[in-house]
Amino acid sequence: MDIGVIIAGILTLAIYTFLYKDNPIYRAAESLLIGLAMGYVLVIYWQTAFMDRIFSPLLNESDWWVLIPLILGLLMFSRFSRKYSWLSRIPIALMIGAGAGVAIPAMLYARTLKQISASVMPLITESGGFNFEALVVIVGLLSTLTYFYFSREHKGIIGKVAKLGTYFLMLFFGATFGYTVMSRMSTFIGRIDFLLSDFLHIIK
Hints:
Elements: H1 3-16, H2 24-60, H3 67-75, H4 89-119, H5 132-147, H6 156-199
């Protein structure tokens, strides 16, 4: 049996001991996972960020422009000094400004414009048939927005539409919770399959 499979099986069983209660075996496996993950991330960042994007262009291509992000990155460490901690505000401000400039258009397109375009569907298809899916989307959208309309009391027709919106919200939250549970169950089934087949060879 491969040594990697043995280690993975033992660590998987160590993690599952938490189902009984918190114990030193589980804490050791958890600490090992966190330590390995941090070490892996540091190595990846060192190779992809420092070596590939800074040192290699600077030494091999004489690209002196990379000194600007290098200096800005080093200024972040001024936070450890009370006297020069104000220098760290420069890269933080640039990072937040650039991040917001990139994120706002992307989020506006992905979370607003795309959802609006998905909500505006024709009720009549190109073949002349009735698009029942579009009707459900429109009713769900309008009733859900009515539920969050607090400028008027939810009575009469507004109250009935808002109540319908709560049903759509419950369907959404239920589907989201079910998807989360199924994804966790899929991960659990995958680990059990690994233990019974690759590690213990009980099933083929």
